[in-house]
Write a structure and sequence with these properties.
single chain; 74 residues; 3 helices
Length: 74
């Protein structure tokens, strides 16, 4: 497992933003987007729109990935 987050750029609402996630989260996030037939930026936009003001985008993505795989395990 890699402890170092990797920074990637996403486009949200027409603006570029950088998000740092561990490689395992990037891999899972991409897999979820692909399984849903969505571009990564579109899924990131959904997560961004649903998150609260107190939660950063990277944290919101991590929680989304975690919840996705928890729901599948049930």
């Amino acid at each position: 497992m890699s402890a170092r987050p990797a920074k990637h750029s996403l486009t949200l609402h027409g603006h570029r933003t950088s998000v740092s996630l561990e490689p395992e989260f990037w891999e899972a996030f991409r897999a979820i987007a692909a399984a849903r037939g969505q571009p990564l930026n579109a899924l990131a936009g959904e997560i961004d729109a649903a998150r609260g003001v107190d939660l950063g985008l990277a944290s919101a993505i991590r929680v989304f990935v975690l919840n996705h795989y928890r729901a599948r395990a049930r």
